[in-house]
Amino acid sequence: MSDHIRVHRLAVFARHGVLPEEAAIGQRFFISLDAAVDTRAAGASDDLTKSVSYADMADVAVGIATARRFNLLEALAEAIATDILAGFPLIEAITVRIDKPSAPVPHVLDSVSVEITRSRADG
Q1: Any idea which residues carry the catalytic annotation?
Q2: Which CATH number goes with the domain that contains 64?
Q3: Using CA atoms, how far apart are residues 76 and 85, in angstroms rounded to an integer?
Q4: Count of domains in the chain?
Q5: What integer is the mean pLDDT of 69-74?
Q6: Which range marks the domain in which residue 23 is found?
């Protein structure tokens, strides 16, 4: 699939992480979504019903990230990918990236991240 609908660095405040302090204090996370979608019909017709709303995808990601708590970024990304594939039948594959800028590691870094890709072909 060569067509993509992307949401870059959607900011959310949440309480994910293994450490008790992360659950108590919380921090900012950035979620990026890259959906593989055939956009030809939408492009030809200028009709949103033939595509996928990036606002709706963002709502799903924010809803999961703020309503549930995860120890691992991998689990958060998996939950987002699963719900997006279930809720948007036109999406053939979704890549979810979670950036954690304030990861509690004893090194100077910009952020840590997890990125997964899931597709309908995965089953």
Answers
A1: 100
A2: 3.30.1130.10
A3: 14
A4: 1
A5: 94
A6: 3-119
